[in-house]
Amino acid sequence: MKGINKAIIIGNVWKDPTIRDTKNGGKVGIVNMVTESGTGEYAKPDWHTVVFYGKQADIVDQYVVKGTNLYIEGRINYRKYTDKSGIDKYVTEIVGGMLSMIGHPDAGKEVRPEPTPTRPVSPAVMEEMKEVKREAHDDIPF
Hints:
The structure is a single chain. The protein has a single domain, classed as CATH 2.40.50.140. It has a five-stranded mixed β-barrel with strand order 1-2-3-5-4. It is globular, with a radius of gyration of 19 Å. β1 (7-21) and β2 (27-37) form a beta hairpin. By secondary structure, it is an alpha+beta fold. The protein has two helices and five strands, in the order βββαββα. 18% of the residues lie in helices and 46% in strands.
């Protein structure tokens, strides 16, 4: 049985995002967020690192700053690297899959990564899929 790896957080960006270019010309956006867990005297901050790639990193670069309130869906990722002094470091982060800005003029627009086909799809099949989508919308009674 396969498991589910999904993280959903709503919180504030606590410092300006870091944007980096990848070796293959893409972008990576790193957003540091804080959420709160617990209530009353048991409330405590939880600190999260969220990583966005491609178009989402562009959105982060253009619109997200310290203090921005975000809704994020993604998956938890664990990785290991060796630092310059040869010491192994372990990192837990959220790989962003969906981003929505709360309280922003574009708040209703969610940004999802473009799906990448796992196999090539012929133009004829793509046209047929478009027709099916059109027919499905025509059947909606409102």
